[in-house]
Amino acid sequence: MKNLRILIADDHDLMRRGVRTLLEAHTGWEICAEAPTGREAVAKAEELKPDIVILDISMPDLNGLEAARRIRSASPNTEILILSVHYSDQLIRELLEAGVRGYIIKSDSDRDLIIAVETLANHKPFFTPRATEVILGNLNMGGSPTRAHVPATLRERLTSREREIVQLLAEGKSSKEVASSLCISVKTAETHRANIMRKLQLHTVTELVRYAVRNQIIEP
Q1: CA–CA separation, 166 vs 164, rounded Å?
Q2: Which pLDDT belongs to residue 145?
Q3: Which residues contact 12 (CB under 8 A, 6 or more apart)?
Q4: Integer CA distances (angstroms), 187 to 89, 166, 168, 183, 184, in order
Q5: Do 79 and 52 form a contact (C-beta atoms < 8 A)?
Q6: pLDDT number for residue 156
Q7: Alpha carbons 95 and 51: distance in angstroms, whole number
Q8: Are 135 and 174 spatial neighbours (Cβ–Cβ below 8 Å)?
Q9: pLDDT confidence of residue 149
């Protein structure tokens, strides 16, 4: 049986080391790469096509939700496990929408991490109990476990590139820095910024930061 190849993405070095130690103690499991940002996680997932990617939600440059969307698109056979301190019903619904089939809270990682990885390795879902309640509740309302019904949210109103720019602006980057980071012109970055503010009906960067925090795009 081939080794299970796992990529760990978290902006905290101590957390990555702890997860690596737990997983490498399991025979046949191999940490093929680590990433401190969501953007780097996507690049390494595209290159290495790991069996499982373990993602934090709050990471610089590109948050875990956006990274999950891109990884699932680039490598459909890669399973994604979200390991995060964050929790909300809307977040769970958006993760399901992105094709994520695993979610545990960091405080439960000692207890749940190994069984979550084992479950995902067999292409079966593993969610924390509260997340399971959200999924079942959606089913009881006639929904789909992988296609949640969410009212107009950031996910639906903004394009992928606009969501990416929201995070960079909320992290304090200027239009010039956004342009440099995304390899686009300053004028294009400013156009995106104007469109974002118009779509979200926001008027200041402070309001944009608050929006990003509420939607768990960045940490407060």
Answers
A1: 5
A2: 46
A3: 56
A4: 37, 16, 16, 12, 8
A5: yes
A6: 52
A7: 18
A8: no
A9: 39
Q: Is 9 helix (H, G, I), strand (E, B) or coil?
A: strand
Q: From the centroid of its chain, how far is CA 201?
A: 25
Mean pLDDT by 10 residues, the chain (220 residues): 89 93 92 95 96 92 91 94 79 84 83 91 85 58 44 59 87 90 90 89 86 78
Strand partners, 80: 53
- What would the two tokens of residue 52 be? 């499982």
Residue 102 CA to residue 66 CA, distance in Å, equals: 15
Q: Could you tell me how many helices (H) and strands (E) the chain has, helices first?
A: 11, 6
Catalogue the long-range contacts made by 70-74 (C-beta closer than 8 Å, 24 or more residues apart). Answer: 70/42, 70/160, 71/41, 71/42, 71/45, 71/46, 72/98, 72/99, 72/100, 74/42, 74/45, 74/46
Structure tokens at 199: 């779509």
Across the beta sheet with 52-55, what order do the strands follow? 29-35, 4-9, 52-55, 79-84, 102-105, 126-127
Tokens of 31: 């940490």
Token pair recorded at residue 119: 């479950």
Q: Give me 80's structure tokens.
A: 């994604």
Three-state DSSP at 78 gives coil
* Cβ neighbours of residue 124 closer than 8 Å, sequence gap 6 or more: 101
Res 155: pLDDT: 47
Pair of tokens at residue 94: 């958006």
